[in-house]
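Field log, afternoon session.

UNIT: design team B
ACTIVITY: writing a sequence onto a fixed backbone
BACKBONE:
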């Protein structure tokens, strides 16, 4: 199943990270993989994972004892793409304000810009 324009919340993205890293995990494994300092309660993780399941972003694949095991149905790249597209829509789809800010603030290096140029050149020749 492919989600159309999946835009996770910050917490959803935080909880998807362990699933992407592990491939499959229980709610307890997801919760315990988060930094102890800011770790949400088990019931919070459970609620968010169930919401992700309703959205079609994760699925239950089996049950071991009382624990359901989940796997992601969206990729990190797909989730990021949805967020970026949503953000760019604030600028009428123009990437220029974003790139300008990244360059002027020093958040993107010249090496990273060169990598981006390599990505752009092949698409121009098509």
């Amino acid at each position: 199943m492919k989600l159309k324009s999946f835009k996770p919340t910050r917490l959803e993205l935080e909880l998807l990270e362990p699933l992407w890293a592990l491939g499959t995990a229980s709610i307890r494994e997801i919760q315990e993989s988060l930094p102890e300092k800011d770790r949400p309660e088990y019931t919070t993780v459970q609620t968010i994972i169930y919401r992700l399941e309703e959205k079609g972003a994760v699925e239950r694949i089996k049950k071991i004892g009382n624990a359901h095991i989940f796997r992601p149905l969206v990729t990190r790249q797909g989730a990021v793409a949805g967020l970026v597209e949503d953000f760019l829509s604030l600028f009428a789809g123009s990437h220029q304000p974003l790139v300008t800010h990244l360059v002027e603030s020093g958040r993107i290096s010249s090496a990273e810009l060169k990598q981006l140029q390599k990505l752009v050149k092949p698409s121009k020749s098509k």
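LOG NOTE: The two ends are 30 Å apart (CA to CA).
NEXT ACTIVITY: expression trials, pending approval
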